[in-house]
Amino acid sequence: MKADQFRTTTIRRGYVYSYYYESSAGGKPTILFLHGFPSTHRDWASQITYFAQKGYGIVAPDLLGYGKTSAPEDASEYKLQAIGQDVIDILNDLKVEKVIAIAHDWGCSLLSRMLNNYINYFSGAAFLALGYLSPQPNYDYKTVIAAFNQRYGYDIFGYWDFFAADDAVSLTEKNFKAQIDSFYSLLFPDDPLIWKTEMAPLRKAREWVEQNKQRPRAAFWTAEDKEAHKATLMQKGPRGAYNWYRAHHRALNNADEHAIPQERLNISIPTFLGGATKDYSCLIDAAKA
């Protein structure tokens, strides 16, 4: 990535967004990259370099709560519809009228709502790990956990209960400052099954961090990656990142989801789903459903 291609803009809600931008060349389309938790545009660095070299335009924001973008403390500011409008504000500021979107994790949830509300901005969409999610106007966390447990035999999203808790920020910051890094060894373990046994079940993620449990990190996750990632996440603290979970865990999106007209639920543009066979949180079977 080119150091001089980073920009900031203030969107209509008054928040400052940081993003990476390169204009397209030779009539190539522009690609919008939407990251997930606990990431920034940096996770797309290899993809940005690859596509930019081929002439594609690039828009890769640090989403609300991450990197150099604003990180409001109130979870109600992290509703998907509002963040979707923030991203549209960025595209409008750049005068980018149409994009192909590539999203991962929470970025997929955000992209799903953007397709419902702003389909005219998109010529194609790719979902990585998590698939397209229809609006959930009656979302209830406990009901969802029970349904997952009945269908798949474990909670899957049990760690949300920790990430959305009032003391999650202080526990995580304490963990980081002590240089113990059990939090990262849980997120990026050498054995993917750790997510199924130590993160997905209710109360397990909290137990892991409180007890400072350790695992070797995944081979692809270098020490340099970890330190850069940690430094970025801790610029403003993890509250903003956790607020994505808080907003959904507390059903703050429900009213917006209820207001989406039925005719917007069908996505007519070309879409792609890339599932991960060893991801025990974002299951391929659930993504296809």
UniProtKB/TrEMBL annotation:
UniProt key word Transcription regulation: no
Any single Pfam family the record assigns to this protein: Abhydrolase_1
Domain AB hydrolase-1 residue range list: 29-178
Any one GO molecular-function label of the UniProt entry: hydrolase activity
Entry keyword annotation includes Hydrolase: yes
UniProt keywords, alphabetically: Hydrolase
InterPro entries: AB_hydrolase_1, AB_hydrolase_fold, Epox_hydrolase-like
Family: Belongs to the AB hydrolase superfamily. Epoxide hydrolase family.
Protein name: Alpha/Beta hydrolase protein
Species whose genome carries this gene: Collybia nuda
